[in-house]
Design brief:
There is one protein chain. By secondary structure, this protein is α+β, with helices and mostly antiparallel strands. Helix content is 26%, strand content 28%. The chain contains four helices and six strands; from the N terminus they run ββααββββαα. The radius of gyration is 15 Å and the shape is globular. 23% of the residues are buried. The mean pLDDT is 91.
Length: 141
Amino acid sequence: MIVFENIKWKNFLSTGQQGIEVELNKDNTTLIVGHNGAGKSTILDALCFGLFNKPFREIKKDQLINSINLGGTEISIEFSIAQNKYKVIRGIKPNIFEIYCNDVLINQDASNVDYQNMLEQNILKCNYRAFCQVVILGSSS
């Protein structure tokens, strides 16, 4: 079972350099509610993009970058599976993709595609489509 602990992002969509951090493990389940434009979908986009290099909504990668800062986009997701704690960091301008297991960087010798497949198949044990259907219940889908 995946237990999401927190997610942080900066220079992502309308979020600036200051960044935002959301704790996801205060309770067993997390329900995100708010008014239109409050950032609910941004959380889902950041989570999906951080894990799968693809946002939850149909947004092009170039449009994910904050239009004022034009770079420095970074998403960090911390989660645990069994006794292992993982951290995935993904960024745009500069491109970053790092996976840590118990604070140790997992070998990046493979291509980004192989590194992504390793994350999905060996760690998360699900792909983007399954994740969106099982883990995320967005009102748009």
